[in-house]
Write a structure and sequence with these properties.
The protein is an alpha/beta fold and 283 residues long. It has one domain (3-152, 194-276): Rossmann fold (3-Layer(aba) Sandwich). The protein contains 10 helices and 10 strands. It has an 8-stranded mixed beta sheet, sandwiched between helices. It has a two-stranded antiparallel sheet with strand order 7-8. Helix 1 links the parallel strand 3 and strand 4 (59-63). Helix 3 (88-100) packs across helix 5. The longest helix is centred in the C-terminal third of the chain and has 17 residues, at 260-276.
């Protein structure tokens, strides 16, 4: 059973999250799970992933990026303005704030000397950035990404110009049919903070052991992006390409059962975290 929490950041954002703990005494190695674009903490495989990690002895924390415009229990975006004005720097700052305040969430269950990070898709990109940030570069114990993007710059110059002229671009959620507006703030942020938001550059800079998992048939983020990240990243890194897997490893929302492709990703993930977050010390 997951317990809920709320953290208020220095920017005034509220991070809503869910905590699942191992049925073991003492502080446990802790894994923070980051959803992707149009995702949320209760989407599809995230609850199943968190439950599995807790069963394997970890404290599992999943949360909603404030910019996703959703509160716990929401099935669609309810804060349209939060979604419209979300930026990538904002996502990164919110994740860094959460990492810095894990002990506030569960002081008796979180071991801050053994922290792992897992991100899917856009959340994978943000997780890679966080792993290269100076205050976390030598503090994270393990990184896993699923279907991570290698760049946030995914539109042509003409598309960006039209986006700026209109002030926003429509985004349709295929799952719900909801049409959302994404403001040009994200473009301004990407240009103003290009170096900090360079995922490939962060892959080169990070030193945390990294397991990069990507579907061979990913229709949203091509597997060539994983190849690029793996090729540019410094060791230690392992690259697992899952045969027959798309962007969400052949499962959707609502979640019904794990697919063989998802099971492959889950098994590799929990093995990686157990290997790199092992130890009996607590902090």
């Amino acid at each position: 059973m997951a317990d809920s929490f709320i953290l208020e950041t220095s920017r005034g954002n509220k991070i809503h999250g869910l905590l699942e703990v191992a049925n073991l005494p003492g502080r446990r190695p802790t894994v923070v799970i980051c959803h992707g674009f149009k995702g949320f903490q209760e989407w599809g495989f995230f609850p199943h992933l968190a439950t599995l990690l807790a069963a394997r002895g970890f404290t599992a924390i999943r949360f909603n990026f404030p910019g996703n415009g959703m509160l716990p229990g929401d099935d669609r975006v309810t804060d349209l303005e939060a979604f419209r004005t979300a930026t990538l720097s904002g996502d990164l700052e919110d994740l860094l704030w959460l990492l810095g305040h894990l002990r506030d969430i569960a002081p008796q269950q979180v071991d801050t000397s053994r922290i792992g990070l897992l991100g899917h898709s856009r959340g994978g990109g943000v997780s890679i950035l966080a792993s290269a940030e100076p205050q976390w570069r030598d503090r994270l114990g393990a990184l896993v990404t699923w279907s991570a993007v290698s760049t946030f710059d995914r539109m042509s110059a003409a598309e960006k110009e039209a986006w700026r002229e209109a002030g926003s671009v429509p985004v349709v959620n295929a799952r719900t049919g909801q049409e959302l507006a994404m403001g040009s703030e994200i473009l301004d942020d990407l240009e103003a903070n290009a170096e900090r938001l360079d995922i490939v550059g962060a892959a080169r800079e990070r030193i945390v052991p990294w397991l990069l998992i990507h579907g061979a048939e990913d229709e949203t983020v091509p597997s060539s992006e994983a190849d690029q990240l793996a090729g540019e990243a410094q060791s230690p890194i392992e690259h697992l390409e899952v045969a027959g897997a798309g962007h969400t490893f052949e499962v959707g929302h609502p979640f019904k059962r794990p697919s063989p492709q998802l099971i492959t990703a889950l098994n590799a993930t929990q093995t990686w975290f157990r290997r790199h977050l092992s130890g009996d010390h607590a902090a």
